[in-house]
Amino acid sequence: QISKMDHIYRGAEVTIISAAGEDEDFGLPGVSNRLRSPQLKARIGDTLFVSTLAHPACVIEASKWSTRGWTYQEAVLSRRRLVFTEEQVYFECNAMNCCESLHVPQIVINEVGSPQYRSSGLFSGSARVNLWDRDEPYRSFIEHATNFSWRTLTYESDALNAFLGVARSY
């Protein structure tokens, strides 16, 4: 199935990503026995101040997950991504993104032309380059190869298989 990961990620309704901990034994914070970091809050008089937490892009970019070669295809090829961090869950698809730290009505998130909630999310940046850049497909491919080359693999011999799904997209 390793050589078919592009088909698996593209066909999945949602890809569950664990961007918490150093390895697969860490679990999903808030789902397994591992608790999530608390969202800090303070009451001053009648006003409650609540932390919006760190931006998910910063947390995910700093995670071990974002350094691993095999996870690159997850980020680039998945249609929908549900990312568990130690603080919150983050969702992104090709049309929108949202996180738990801010309560925003679904109608606002899905509102056409609402740029603050459109998919300018974390996978739109360094990892999620447009696979089908009609103007410059070669440039887009080079960006993917460069982004992938910074990631680590336990076995260098896995490099081709770990990038195969992205390459096959072209």
UniProtKB/TrEMBL annotation:
It comes from the Eukaryota. Residues 1-74 form the Heterokaryon incompatibility domain. InterPro entries: HET. This is Heterokaryon incompatibility domain-containing protein. It comes from Glonium stellatum.
